[in-house]
Amino acid sequence: MEFSIKSGSPEKQRSACVVVGVFESRKLTLPAELLDKAAGGAIGDIVRRGDMDGKSGTTLLLHNVPGTLCDRVLLVGLGKEKDFREKEFGQAIRTAVKTLNETGAFDASIFLTELAVKKRDIAWRIRQTVIVARDATYRFEQFKSKKNEVRRPLRKLTLGVERRNELAQAEQALVQGLAIAEGMALAKDLGNLPPNVCNPTYLATRAQTLAAELGLHCEILERADMEKLGMNALLSVANGTHQPPKLIVLGYQGGRSNEKPLVLVGKGITFDSGGVSLKPAADMDEMKYDMCGAASVLGTLVAAALMKLPLNLKVLIPATENMPGGNATRPGDIVASLSGQTIEILNTDAEGRLILCDALSYAERFDPDTVIDVATLTGACVVALGSVASGLFANKDSLARDLLEAGDEAHDRAWHLPLWDDYQELLKSPFADMTNTGGRWAGPVTAACFLSRFAKKFDWAHLDIAGTAWKSGADKGATGRPVPLLAHYLLQRAGQLN
Ligand code: BES
Ligand code: MN
Ligand code: ZN
Questions:
Q1: Are residues 194 and 300 located together in one domain of the fold?
Q2: Distance (Å, rounded) from C-alpha 129 to C-alpha 51?
Q3: Which residue among the candidates 125, 246, 353, 481 is catalytic per the annotation?
């Protein structure tokens, strides 16, 4: 879908469809009023007759509206005006785009972008519109022999801007929105791919192609390289599979050469069977999403490169399967991590932290300004926060605050959980420096405590995205989160958010 920005009045648009909003209790928004005036009150009449009451999620498609130059007018219900916030704005855009995709219109001019959203400016509304529109029309059908084709898909969306002096800001926001949407689409594609296709080798190859396309630096460490370095925690997870593990390293240099990089680390377990501590059979297919951390840091890198942000970034992806093959790690095994700290593996299903800890130690060599790891780390985080918020941990409060704020701005929210020392005790081992599981209580916290032991030399944050990276149920699939959060954090760091 193509996007463009335009300032102009709705009644003068020569498009296949003009989209305007109606609040609950039948109150027309300003663009709807302009259309109504041009149409000699025709829209107001229809609304008064009760065909559109403005309830959120409702739409009404009108043809041949007098006094206008467009073929159709789509009225979109916005709910109560006093409750109209970020979430309602997104819902209105989603409803509009989904409906447009089902009408005969190839192009549309949407004026919902002119609606006031508390605390949010035109740039926010444009970015959000593009992101939501791309999300609403996303499909993953490459493995269907019969594609579920949309009869007349929406090809072009023109976003209305009320004042001419907002145009420049809106154009920049459009570029940002497109970049973030692109990063999210990549993250969704990678997450949705079946685990027999998207294995560590596939991820490494994809990273190399992306690097070539975007002019990024890319290096793949093989098993032998990791053995030489002593990444035994990571390698212990790869013991039970025939798939060779990879450590993918990508670099984007948008900032000055002497500027310390921000390092993003993404968990890349391309399938998590649990290993010898085997998971139950029900829904085990969903463990193909256990590389969504990897997918989201790749997506964020793509977004940053497309936005040409003046920052230096490194992306690190430890990638392996977690399988119960004959050579698999046993509960009770002790391994020495790259940091030198030893780990007693009590549960082979707590594998994410084992690959991440070595990647975190590896990050030290980049002399990072900040390190953020992203991982579908614990089922307990899903229990705690559901699919609304990602779990956030940090060894520095200002970093946590910045990430929370970025999540709010992107409407891709996180919630700060504690990393207090009191929890570290749960990782005590009688035989090694620590165990890899903290027992039954505070699962997301003990997992983060484990990681914190490998992140002492830099500012570090951890996002547990087990609940937010994908949806179960009827419209099962990867969500592309937390690409929006991370991309907004980068925009904020680059000083490009207002
Ligand atoms: N990949 C899982 C976490 C997960 C579970 C994500 C369910 C999404 C949905 C992770 O590797 C795992 O298995 N964690 C264990 C840790 C436990 C053994 C300490 C868990 O959450 O049960
Ligand atoms: Mn696991
Ligand atoms: Zn896992």
A1: yes
A2: 26
A3: 353
